[in-house]
UniProtKB/TrEMBL annotation:
This is Polysaccharide export protein. InterPro entries: Mannosyltransferase_CMT1 (IPR021047).
Amino acid sequence: MFLPNAQTYRSALFPRRILRRRFFLVFALVFLLWSTAEVILIRHRLLNADTTHPATTPRRDRVYIASIHWNNEEILRSHWNNAILQLAEALGPENVYLSVFESGSWDGTKMALQELDRSLDILCVARNITVSEKTHHDEISASTVGDGWIDTPQGRKELRRIPYLASLRNLSLQPLYALLANGITFDRILFLNDVVFTTHDVLNLIDTNQGEYAAACSLDFSKPPLYYDTFALRDSLGKEHVMQTWPYFRSSESRNAMKYMSPVPVASCWNGMVSMPTSPFYADLPLAFRGVSNSLALSHVEGSECCLIHADNPLTREKGVYLNPLVRVGYNPTAYSLVHPAYSWLSMWQMYQSLWENRMRRMFTSTFLKDWVIRRRVASWETQDGGNYEPGQFCLINEMQVLRENGWAHV
């Protein structure tokens, strides 16, 4: 019987090694070419989407604009006030109502809003601009009885941040109901943060998905390329972002829509600017902002009022919530200009790198542990009382947030 010696065996293996090496080289080349082609195609879509502007003729919708402000003098004077005036002129002063609630600012926010009030008066724009002398210090020094006060790990009873913000947003909606009582109604509510925006941004946002949505949000930036509002944005599966840069999402449905620069289906969003139909706010039981219950918050669980409102909105299941990647706003002029360059706000290298980072993160990271912690705490809370139920569980995070004189803090 013939037995091959070591040299013969090595000779037999040599062609196999060459074949394997060639196979891997060909595979790597094909994968590289495929990735490059994908990036070129996506970049083409991005350029087309950003340069193909929809008609600038605004819809004939009547728009109620709601906004809350705190220490925003700089952005008000540099951009926001003028942008509101230009928007009112574009929509038609008779089609706009502006409701602003300012809460105890210590800079020149009050004066800036009073200047806006005078300018709106010249344009004959209906409005309610409320400036409040009640500061954060006043709020947290008040009686500790009532909703929003919680026993913190520091052994103190403190005012939760989210119920406080929810109450301010609801105050900005109060004129809507006073007007309704007088037979004056609106088609949409435009919620505006302290952002740099243009009339074109607003018209684009209102026209998201041909105007069919439970809510449509912009994409917001403070320090590009990182997006800002991580607290409220959840993908179509209710998951937090897999990365804070484009294409952001873990869900394939949300991620692919972002690649196409088409309206992105999400479970919730806010991100600087939001358009919503008024119908849920006109219902017999009107939609309103809220925080999670104090008893659940005691388990070190919190959720954004800007996420929970989508969980509560009956239109969400019917019409969906969308993030519009064509509408990008900034919390400062630099951020806005960086996401509105003359050519493209994403380079080919950024796209190539981000697509791979997204793939790797989806492969090697998971939200399982975070989700498990929240599920366990909510389940324990539900057993405490048969009436305990939180429909916005996808909004919840492992945090406790309280108000401070100069802002807010984690505890």
